[in-house]
Design a protein that fits this description.
- The strands form two sheets. This protein has a six-stranded mixed sheet.
- The protein has two helices and twelve strands.
- The protein is 10% helix and 39% strand.
- A hairpin with a 7-residue loop joins β8 and β9.
- It is mainly beta.
Length: 181
């Protein structure tokens, strides 16, 4: 995967860059719900800084075109963050995001275009535990209902706030970082 180029992407309040949201407060980010093309999780990794999620368009002409036409926050999927106090879990839902891309559909030009952009299809992110470790959450898991993707995390006892920070668009991939304090 190529290095992520940081680009300012505005986010909806309250989960905006530089703004921390209390753990018990729900928030949204990304494009408006019900808009944009379909995306696939190309990488998700827990690390020292938090949880990084990288997405790419599905390998069909409509999804690639929608991704290329998206600007700013519209490159990120509609996302919602909620804290389920009964389970002690922070739940991140990504609308119109799947874990398995399937093969490249359409004409040969699309296959060549996506390969030239450095994207290898089919791509699949397995359900279950997310690889890597972060000192601020105990475990993280990813799942999908076939249309939307859910990431569940168990924050550590000292965590009081979270934020979603857009890392920007790099070619045909968009990334964001979920951090805690």
């Amino acid at each position: 995967m190529s290095a992520v180029v940081e680009t300012a992407l505005p986010m909806e309040s309250p989960a905006s860059e530089g703004s921390w949201t209390a753990l018990g407060t729900a928030s949204t980010f990304g494009r408006p719900s019900g808009t944009g093309g379909s995306l696939v999780v190309s990488q998700v990794l827990a690390g020292e800084d938090g949880l990084t999620v990288t997405l790419a368009p599905l390998p069909d002409e409509a999804s690639v075109n929608a991704f290329q036409e998206a600007e700013g926050e519209e490159a990120l999927p509609a996302g919602a963050v909620d804290y389920w106090s009964d389970a002690g879990a922070l739940v991140l839902k990504l609308e119109n995001v799947v874990l398995s891309s399937g093969d490249i559909g359409g004409d040969d030009w699309l296959h060549d275009f996506l390969r030239d952009a450095g994207l290898e299809y089919p791509m699949t992110t397995p359900t279950g535990a997310i690889p890597g470790t972060c000192p601020l959450f105990e475990k993280a898991a990813i799942s999908s209902d076939g249309t939307n993707t859910t990431i569940s995390l168990l924050p550590g006892e000292t965590v009081t706030d979270y934020r979603v920070t857009a890392l920007g668009v790099d070619g045909l991939e968009v990334s964001f970082l979920l951090t805690f304090q």
